[in-house]
Amino acid sequence: MKWYVWFFVTCASFNSGAAEFEQDHEIQLDQRLFANKPTGERAGRPVYGQSSVMLQSEFSWYDDTKTFHIKPFFRLDSHDDKRTKVDFREFYGEFYWQDYQLGVGLNKVFWGVLESRHIVDVINQVDLVESLDEEEKLGQPMLQFGSVEAWGSINIFLLPYFRERTFAGESGRLFPSGIDLLSPQYESGAEERHWDVALRINHYLEEFEYAISYFEGTNREPYLLNDPSGVRPYYVQMRQTGLEFQKAKASWLFKMEGIYRDDIANLWELGAGFEYTQVGVFDSIYDVGWLAEYLFDSQASDINKSVLFLGARLVFNDVQGTEVLFGIEQSVTDISEMNMRLEASGRLNADWKWAFELWGINADHAANEYYLIRNDDFMSLSVSYFF
Amino acid sequence: MKWTIQLGIAVALVAFKGYASIDLSALSASEAGMKISQERKLKDKGWGSSEAEVEMIIVSATGEKNERRMKMRALEVIGDGDKLLTLFETPRDVKGTRFLSYSHISKPDQQWLYLPSIKRVKRIASANKSGPFMGSHFAYEDLSSFEIEKFDFKFLKKEPLEGVEHFVVEQTPKDKYSGYQRQVVWLNTKTFQASKKEYFDKAGNLVKRLTLSDYKLYKDKFWRPHSLRMEQLQTKETTLLKTHAMSFGHSFSEQDFSQASFKRMR
User: Fold this and answer.
1) How close A164 gets to chain B, by Cα (Å)?
2) Which of A94, A121, A383, B15 is the most buried (most CB within 10 A)?
3) Which CATH number goes with the domain that contains B87?
4) Is A121 left (phi over 0), alpha (psi -120 to 50) or beta?
5) Cβ A250–B179 below 8 Å, yes or no?
6) Which of A279, A282, A320, A351 is the best mutation test for B, with the most CBs of B within 10 A?
7) Position B6 in a domain
8) Domain count, chain B
9) Does residue B27 lie within any of the structural domains?
10) Over the stretch A172-214, which tens digit does the pLDDT of each residue have?
């Protein structure tokens, strides 16, 4: 049965008379400013400025035993036709009984403990058009069953449909010009209709938290094959086992996550680090969280194989909820190869919010995975209205 | 005149009942402080579970107001600290964010945050308790449940507050991550509920004053204040915490307060 048939069964079972209904909307104006001209000229690409407007709504119905969510997303971009799009971030129903939960529809799932990278997180495809930090994701069609047991909680996923990774368009920035992105190729004959399965068990014992996960199906991360007419994303089948571990001790959070992945090659990826929080620093009400994470990827080029992330999060604890996060990701093997980012946000009043983002990329070697976007250092300022 | 006499009688009655329920004679200041606090805890035992609609109004020194609405659910844990779940409704940009905390009597508290936009459950360092809650003048620890094991006590005196006799008890937090050197609490001698609380920072300065009022009785036994007013004495800023609707006797289970399911709270 198709996933959307399941979905309409869910909807039909909803007795709307007894349910509560809520709707929320956000409209956002976003302006990007680039520090440099794009690499390679192409007519229509933004040289310095790129603007967009985004509308995201959330409709939810719920009662004690079920909820139903629709979260449409729409963005209109001044230049990039790939950034102009409509999507459903969420479109799902969830049922609860005793300590069990059943979900059906398009949803998002987050796994992992690290801040700089999400190594074990595998269910959803990332939306690279929206953000480089891999925290923006496309809704994933799924049938999910969850159970809370004394020994931990278990979640089982059936994923009947695959969604391709999104990249910025040739008429935009943050994608190399002069490269044509071709239609994808799949290892599986079922292509995007391959049924993937996943499982995660997580538990916590006082200050320890741990999780083990397994995924079998289409790798969300494509291999990019060079083809005479361009670059072709190639999606292979994979088996991936993931581990997460976290310990909270006084002002410290110690974190570790890693995967072993078996597809057309074998690879392992590991990240470990800590977050140290200073509450009320310098006799103020500010909190500072110091972040350090070491990342290792066995399959990456020498430059990206071994990376150190250092960051600081400044929380103002004011009524506006002002926060600043600054981080540097530094190649351990080549000191000149690094990128930095700064994210800041806060409220203007109860209904308005601002956000600022700055990305600096220093990639001199072609082997650096950021090399193709080396001239795309940018800052963006957005203002959102919630209603 | 008549009113004054009636009030006088009422105060006398309250004071009498206060004496009747607890005998502090022949006790040292710390023993008396402990005895009063134990009675305070005992009088509130057995409330089970509660849910409240809460409005928080943060008022700046210039009178500018910032409002937050939230729903708070609490579960009594016999033999340990309580579990508290907070669902934020406004401001709109944080709507749907949930905060879960387990208060413990003999080990560090546990805290998690659920961020709905990325569907992430995030652990918060256990020492992070002295920081402001949602930009207000309440620290996280000001909102956690009262547990005997978390303090050393000292009975200071008995004095009337707005005509009602109160025990004045000093409580010194044992946790080194507390933001306070000590707190002084005024407990109604009849109900053992707090009417006023003063907070002293690590340097010993009086920094905040909490006034608790609009008490309502639930299940004929449990008193709950519906108005909390926290004053920051240096900056002259205040935060009002008003409870609009409160109910007891919910069929919440431990699992509803688990890290796996708290994101479902409605």
Assistant:
1) 19
2) A121
3) 2.50.20.10
4) beta
5) no
6) A279
7) no
8) 1
9) no
10) 888 776 677 889 999 999 999 999 999 999 998 888 999 999 9
